[in-house]
Amino acid sequence: MSELIESLAEALRISPNATPLRLHLAELLIADGQQSRAIAELGIVLGDDPENAQAQDLLRRAVAVPAQAAGQASAEARPASPSSEAPAPPAARDQPDLRNPVPAPAPTDSVDWAKHEAELGVDVAPPFVSEHANPSDDGFIVVGGGEDTKFFEEPQPERITLADVGGLELVKNRLRLAFLEPMRNPEIAKAYGKSLRGGLLLYGPPGTGKTFLARAIAGELDAKFLSVTIADILDGIMGESEKNVRRIFERARDLAPCVLFIDELDSLGGKRSGYSNMGWMRNVVNQMLQEMDGVGANNDGVFILAATNHPWDVDNALLRPGRFDRVVLVTAPDAEARAAILRQAFKDRPIAGISLEEAVAATHGFSGADLTHLVASAAELAMSDSIQSGEMRPIGMQDLRAALNEVKPSTGPWLQSARNVVDFANADGRYDDLKDYLEAEQKHKQKKPKR
């Protein structure tokens, strides 16, 4: 266990932005009794992404573990006895102040909230958000290995398709041409020499809905959906990580037709040259290569998809023909998609006088996650005002404008990295679509009036 922990820590020193790696490290630290160190790692994740559900869950687990005796090494800590000290009670600031109670909100019977909500227009299918995002345990399949090794299979009645994705028509057309139509028409594709082997890599800024698009592709193909993360593969026992890769592909073949989706591919299939001191990670990459197109690898009916924010960090061998040879850029949502995301975010919240057109125009470059955070921030402002005044009021444009002064697009650092790649590492034209997107963004920036 300690060897894996230190190896992951070394990998994070090389790739500090690999959030899945950091979350997996925190989980191992909690299991190893190193709560303080785990909390520090989770603090880094939550500092960049305060709404990261996995980090929040791990943090709750870390702080719930009773503190070890002073001076006792966590690695040698014994299981807590029944008489161990119970976790400390919540901080005083979390308790209600009975001396100065918050006044109850005024009755809202006289307010027609439905009318206010109708000002946003008719509901549309939520892009990048599935209404079945929290399936029951019945939706999980045990693939082998430990009892906790589970991979999600989307239940049949809850399928989504590309029609459920708002906007992004260029991306959807590219997906249809490069992937979906050849898979649906294998005989025609074969006549034109179009290979059906290999996989598809979705890349783009964080929070732009790559995972949702992968689910939509599974729905288009009427296939099962297996989702895999770094935590499902890495194991502290020598050789188990490679076995987990083999088990995953074997399970996908058993369930064919099946979409096997690998999230954060750069964390699992990073450049092997960067793993000079971590032979086991090199073995994981080699096993993935073997399973994708090695001798005897029969992946008929297995559609391999992956997503990454940094395709330039993926090992080049994984991007060769027969592997992830089709690469599709998923950009920040366009105007149509932003409108749909904002409608979904405002849904079930009290609103009045919201100008959807103004909100869409003011959020160019925002990811889907940014837009959700923007609406949540506006809701917090209205809620705070309601608590202070003792009279409940709906969310208005003044709240949204105030939130826009605080919430900015999170795609800026990614775009800067992407510009460097286009300028210095696009000799083979792999990122020509990214180049076109960056040029369009630059033109939009020049047209934007200065405040």
Topology (SSEs and partners):
Layout: H1 2-14, H2 19-31, H3 35-48, H4 53-64, H5 113-118, E1 140-142, E2 150-153, H6 169-184, H7 186-191, E3 199-203, H8 210-220, E4 224-228, H9 230-233, H10 240-254, E5 258-262, H11 265-268, H12 279-293, E6 302-308, E7 326-329, H13 335-346, H14 356-361, H15 368-389, H16 397-406, H17 412-424, H18 432-447
Parallel strand pairs: 3-6, 3-7, 4-5, 5-6
Antiparallel strand pairs: 1-2, 2-4
Quick recap:
By secondary structure, the chain is an alpha/beta fold. The protein is 46% helix and 7% strand. The protein has helices at residues 2-14, 19-31, 35-48, 53-64, 113-118, 169-184, 186-191, 210-220, 230-233, 240-254, 265-268, 279-293, 335-346, 356-361, 368-389, 397-406, 412-424, 432-447, and strands spanning 140-142, 150-153, 199-203, 224-228, 258-262, 302-308, 326-329.
